[in-house]
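Need tokens for this chain, all 267 residues.
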Amino acid sequence: MIINIIIITLLVSILVLLILKSNHKPTSKTVPKNAVILDSCALIDGRVIELAKVGFMPKLIIVPQFIVKELQLLADGRDSYKRERARFGLNVVQQLQEDSALSVIIDETVPDKPTTDEQLVELAKRTSAELFTTDFNLNQVATIEGVTVLNVNELAHALRPVALPGESVYVSILQSGSNRDQGVGYLDDGTMVVVDGAIKDIGKSIEVVINKSHQTVAGKMLFAKKVVVQGAAGSNSTQRKQVQSPKQVRSTRKQHQPKYRPRKKSS
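Here are the structure tokens for all 267 residues:
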């Protein structure tokens, strides 16, 4: 009788272990370090694919299932813009899964939190993973909660070439500035440049000299002064040299006047 009880107990224990193993979900003990969680903004942005190709992303990528459902709802919605962006985000997940160098996990864990942002932060804490997002507010909340955030926008700002004061660059002037004589343009990398004396150069690409730079929340702003083209003054002086003096005019007229020939007297 005792042997039968022991056998039944062992069988029940094995059955419980099998059930727990089948319902097992990734936790901070099972997810290795250097993992990253993607939110819907990161998937819709799409630049994560290029970062993964060049090796600037962790090899383990976690996509929460509630993020996939969020994209699915948007993809089935009536807003055409959101529908296209959500479909693009779902396509990004498929492309990441097809990359043999990456390991993509669809995590079914749904933390007991009221909002999606709070669920993402809580999941990042549980898995000890970094959070990849382009959402500014989520970035701030996650940083306050002690979660490491990867923001591709901040990466793009950090990789912009540095324009030092005194350096001359070419800027495309697109609009007027706050002052009457100012023009506002942008460098090739998107850096805004405020140029003094460029109000009449809207729609043109002109050469400017950087005076100073100012760091803002949105990025770096440059202040510059328009380069005065020296050739303009030179062309005026050349024209002045070509103007003839009154003496030269009189001598020129004499050269072109016909010579006087006296008439022969008739016999």
